[in-house]
Specification:
By secondary structure, this protein is α+β, with helices and mostly antiparallel strands. It has two domains: about 50 residues, no CATH class; about 180 residues, Glucose Permease (Domain IIA) (Distorted Sandwich). The strands form three sheets. Strands 3, 5, 6, 7, 8, 10, 11 and 12 form an eight-stranded antiparallel sheet that branches. The chain has a two-stranded antiparallel ribbon with strand order 1-2. Strand 1 and strand 2 form a beta hairpin. About 5% of the residues have low confidence.
Length: about 270
């Protein structure tokens, strides 16, 4: 999203947990309502269906009937390290490697926490991707919101993966057919990469995880399942090295020597501007 809209995005993260007047906080399908009635009684199910804001007890009750089952390989099973991937299949070589002139101004993986022209990067951002590149879910969860962005000709997709802690991640500048309430599992294709602002032959997107109550964004790499960290850092290093060798002196923002080892996290967390 455009940087001037960052404060608005943060407000959306907080506000998404409160439904519009006349609607429940989370839309209940027939199966979910039946589950709530069976487990907690008709009165509790009716209260959740009518609630504009869920209290802590109602959130736990709803999570018991809406949280998707854990994937056999993990995903959403650890609150400390919830992510099983970085939303991108590096093995598919998704980058549009073109001329050094085209590559020069852009880093294929931007460094989380780095100052770029006065703005501190608060997402794991992938650039210079092939149009149509799949974006995959790093967790089991449920679509919370799909926000249309006419100014950049794309959408931002928000997915809730831990109802109890209001844990949400988003992918921004993507195209998707998903809608609110859809269930996703680790590895599912949740979006694709469109042309950047509808004008470029390449695309890019942001993978973001925030804690609204702390006004902080966190580097997604540090939230990876420990079993996936080494491979992810090796994938990122390989991309950085290829870009550095191709862009050469045309690189507008060259990687620093330390970037190749730490996996695109200059900082662990970044304060969000209000």
């Amino acid at each position: 999203m455009r940087r001037a809209a960052l404060a608005l995005s943060l407000a959306l993260f907080v506000g998404m947990l409160v439904a519009p007047v006349g609607a429940s906080a989370v839309p209940l399908d027939t199966a979910t309502r039946a589950c709530l009635t069976k487990k907690f009684g008709a009165k509790a199910a009716a209260a959740i269906a009518k609630a504009k804001t869920l209290n802590a007890k109602q959130k736990r009750q709803l999570a018991a009937c809406t949280a998707p089952p854990p994937d056999p390989g993990g995903g959403g099973t650890s609150s400390e390290f919830p992510f099983q991937n970085l939303t991108l299949d590096f093995a598919s070589d998704p980058w549009l490697w073109s001329s050094a002139k085209d590559l020069g101004p852009f880093q294929p993986v931007k460094i989380f926490g780095r100052d770029y022209n006065g703005y501190t990067e608060s997402a794991l951002t992938f650039m210079m991707l092939k149009i149509g590149t799949p974006v995959i879910s790093p967790v089991n969860g449920r679509v919370l919101e799909v926000r249309d962005q006419p100014e950049s000709k794309d959408v931002e997709l928000y997915i809730m993966f831990d109802e109890a802690t209001n844990s949400i991640f988003s992918v921004d500048h993507v195209k998707t057919t998903m809608k609110r309430g859809d269930v996703v599992k680790v590895g599912d294709v949740i979006a694709t990469v469109p042309s950047w602002e509808g004008e470029e032959i390449w695309g890019g997107y942001e993978f973001m995880f925030v804690r609204p109550e702390k006004n902080l964004a966190y580097c997604p790499i540090n939230l990876l399942d420990p079993k996936a960290v080494a491979a992810a850092k090796a994938d990122i290093r390989a991309v950085m090295e290829k870009w550095a060798s191709m862009a050469g002196s045309a690189a507008g923002n060259p990687y620093r020597p330390e970037d190749f080892d730490r996996g695109a996290c200059e900082l662990a967390e970044v304060p969000l501007k209000k």
